[in-house]
Design brief:
It is built from three helices and no strands. The chain is mostly helical and 78 residues long. The mean pLDDT is 92.
Length: 78
């Protein structure tokens, strides 16, 4: 398995755990999702947006990692 694939699986596992937390809270403690840490915005909305932002950040991190790996592999020509 390539280094990029292993790194991608690590990032996937991180995101899966983060998403699993959202599902677990929603399923087993739905009242927690009603909590409003920011007036007018409940935890469900904050967590949902965080899922989107984290997915985008992980994609950027993975892309940068793969590009750096390609640069090292091809002597900076990639």
């Amino acid at each position: 398995m390539s280094k990029n694939a292993r790194f991608g699986l690590v990032l996937f596992a991180f995101y899966l755990a983060f998403y699993g937390g959202f599902v677990a809270i929603s399923a087993f403690s739905p009242d927690t999702m009603d909590w409003t840490p920011i007036p007018g915005i409940n935890l469900a909305i904050i967590y949902g947006f965080a899922l989107i932002v984290v997915a985008l950040l992980l994609a950027l991190i993975y892309g940068a990692f793969c590009r750096a790996e390609g640069d090292r592999r091809h002597g900076g020509d990639a």
